[in-house]
Amino acid sequence: MPSLAVVRRNASTLFIAAVLGCSGTAVAQAALASAAGLVLEAAPFVVAATLGKQILQRIERKSPSVPLSRWTTVFFGLAGCGCLGAVGALSLSSLALTSYAFGPAVAAIRLTGALVLALLPLGQRGDDDAHESAPLDALAALVPYALCGSVAAQALLALQSASHLSRITAFVAGAVVGLLSPCALGALAVAASLRAAAPSAALGILATAGFIAMRALPLIRVGGSALRGSTLWAAALFLVAVVLVAVRGGAGLVHPRLIAPSIVAASYLFVHALVRQCRSVSFFAPCAIAVALIVGSPVPRYDGDATALDAAFAGQTVHFTGVVRRRQSLCLLIRFTITCCRADATPLSLRLDHDVGFPDGAWVSADGVFAESPSGLVLRTTRIRAVAAPADPFLYR
Q: Which residues lie below 8 Å from residue 4, measured CB to CB, with a gap of 6+?
């Protein structure tokens, strides 16, 4: 059993998460959901990094002439999700998204910069130390930065929708989002959604996301005597939370395809804590998931005015279910898509050729055909009707 002192210290973690989740503030709830999704997404990669690092260390001990430590950052960066290690820009998933959204040239530039940074001493700083004692600590270290990054991204989207920012202001705001976000993939998804409406903000995100991470700086340490306690209880809570997410089909926090790897990772963390009996842990990660499950994963509000369909063309037949939103004289249908987890939820918005007459926030199902207009593609509806909100409001790529 954990000591009373440990319970009191970690009770503050649960309290903070509960306040965020139950505050009734959409931004706070969305930030908590994004942080929980990021922890779930990162769990399999944290476990893989822990096992891989142990293997590489054994090889290096047996063959001292083969220096592998400098390449571990590169290796785990490529195999990771963009939220593990100091150089998230090496993530193959984030590079694929960059290539798709901004072109191969931009992806190649980011890859070159990431490789150079990874081989510098600065590139060795980050979450690596958290794997030495308890892998769950690495997940706990992500949570505060995930909250900051999510709030910053929500604020950037709101500012862009409410007013036209100057190019310099938009670039700086985008750079801050990339700096605060611990997930390169999530930050790049925000950049992709802004590339048409706010190219300067998207450029700012590209300049920092995955290159410079606040979590790579020694600002928050989840280890140390202040958090000493039995890892087993936190690992057990984490396993229960992940199983509950699986029962709810992802719960809007993580892509369904990541559920099985997350359960495997959570089971490993529990067995690791049971066998190794680690003594340094934070309850931040499992508490964030548990509270996010209790309060739910709210659908983000987005007031953009662009049709975010790169492959769409005039004459294409469309069947789409989404939420009605209005911005000035425009009527939109919006549905959010998730690539990996809630942190990279991005809006898919269809501009309609006329006002449909349904109130803002109503779920409708529309059939129609894309048509050209002076402002771009619009959906010319042939049939539209109100529908009940779907059990899962997100689409998955």
A: none
